[in-house]
Design goal:
CATH superfamily of the largest domain: Isopropylmalate Dehydrogenase
Order of helices and strands: EHEHHEHEHEEEHEHEHEHEEHHH
Number of strands: 12
Strand content: 15-25%
Helix content: 40-55%
Number of domains: 2
Oligomer: single chain
Shape: globular
Bound molecules: nicotinamide-adenine-dinucleotide
Number of helices: 12
Distance between the termini: 19 Å
CATH class of the largest domain: Alpha Beta
CATH architecture of the largest domain: 3-Layer(aba) Sandwich
Largest sheet: 10 strands, mixed
Length: about 350
């Protein structure tokens, strides 16, 4: 065996443990094929951590993730913990985890699988060929800027949030955007509102200054309103979209519905240390423990982990091809089966992917 990688597993709540088990089987399979080894460790996060340790992100989990090469997360949350105080909610654990890892760029690829085009809310000819990645700034902008609420002298209430970015915050996420474009079709769309906002004009200036460092990547600017429109009218026109936090939050959810199923979408959150990889869906308490969760979002997150943290891009390509082949061959979990009585369970879908990997 060649190199060894340390992967921290955070199954979390609900369907989290089921989809993590699927991701591990696929990661093990490519590790065997490519002769590297994985050292796994499993840790508590979210509701299960509140139950066992009294807090959603225990110190043991924190120590383990920062020493890992990459982190694979299932999902957190559920009705059992919805009534606790804010800092004792599972979601607080997720925010603390992202902060501990210093992940400032969120990558969300959205690909239309030809065999699933019928599930898209868009007409098939519009959805066909969609293959876009949104790179969203994750730790700055209006969600983290200064804020104030109060009352004017006449008693009228006001509230204020500030969209604030420094040059270096913009630059580091743009680096991730340019690098992602390099690994794909080498087209980058930078999205802003430079006709109105100073923070966007700074963003655009930094993009223009960086262009010469990436002569192989073609760059265009788009305003966020027009980008939102084009995402549903001609989504195949985009390759990588890079944008600030608030715009990216909205555009990535818009893009997520293009393919018609939340269960197949992966995500990566990266910075300068270990990356965090997770499906975009939540803990789906309504189907927990039934072995019916779609594992493909997690399996495709494993592919992102291999590409962006572990340095095995060919293994990532193979996993993506195996998922595509399994779907093309008719493999469907219940969420993709459009009401049909026959569908694959979580472990069976995982085996369908493994069969195409072999
Ligand atoms: N990153 C995270 O951990 C994360 C993200 C979103 C929501 N949540 C939490 O998850 C809990 C449930 O939230 P929600 O219901 O709004 O969102 P959800 O994504 O958990 O579920 C939405 C719907 O999609 C279905 N679904 C989700 N993932 C699926 C999969 N892999 N296969 C098949 N069907 C799937 C569910 O059954 C449900 O009907 C809440 O506590 C919420 O806070 C966590």
């Amino acid at each position: 065996m060649g190199q060894s990688m340390r992967v921290a597993l955070l199954p979390g709540d609900g369907i989290g443990p089921d989809v993590i088990a699927a991701g591990v089987r696929v990661l093990d399979a490519v590790a065997r094929q490519d002769r590297f080894s994985i050292e796994y460790s499993t840790h508590l996060l979210g509701g299960v951590a509140i139950d066992e340790m009294g807090e959603p992100f225990p110190a043991q989990t924190r120590d383990a993730v920062i020493r890992s090469d990459a982190v694979l997360l299932g999902a957190v949350g559920g009705p059992k913990w919805d009534r606790g105080p804010g800092h004792l909610r599972p979601e607080a654990g997720l925010l603390a985890l992202r902060k501990a890892l210093g992940v400032y760029a969120n990558l969300r690829p959205v690909r239309a699988f030809p065999a699933l085009l019928g599930a898209s809310p868009l007409r098939e000819e519009v959805a066909r060929g969609v293959d876009v990645m949104i790179v969203r700034e994750l730790t700055g902008g209006v969600y983290f800027g200064e804020r104030q609420t109060g009352q004017l002298q006449d008693g009228e209430r006001f509230a204020r949030d500030t969209m604030y970015y420094t040059e270096s915050e913009i630059r580091r996420v743009l680096v991730k955007g340019f690098e992602a474009a390099r690994l794909r079709k080498k087209r980058l769309t930078s999205v802003d509102k430079a006709n109105v906002l100073d923070s966007s004009r700074l963003w655009r200036a930094v993009v223009d200054e960086m262009k010469s460092e990436y002569p192989d990547v073609s760059v265009e600017h788009a305003l966020v309103d027009s980008c939102a429109m084009h995402l549903v009218t001609r989504p195949h026109a985009f390759d990588v979209i890079v944008t600030e936090n608030l715009f990216g939050d909205i555009l990535s959810d818009e893009a997520a519905v293009l393919t018609g199923s939340i269960g197949v979408l992966p995500s990566a959150s990266i910075g300068n240390g270990p990356g965090l990889y997770e499906p975009i869906h939540g803990s789906a308490p309504d189907i927990a423990g039934q072995n019916v969760a779609n594992p493909l979002g997690t399996i495709l997150s494993v592919a992102l982990m291999l590409r962006y943290s572990l340095g095995f891009p060919e293994a990532a390509d193979r996993i993506e091809a195996a998922v595509e082949a399994a779907i093309a061959g008719g493999a469907r979990t219940r969420d993709l089966a459009a009401g049909a009585a026959a569908f694959l369970h979580t472990d069976e879908m995982t085996e369908a992917v493994l069969a195409h990997l072999a």
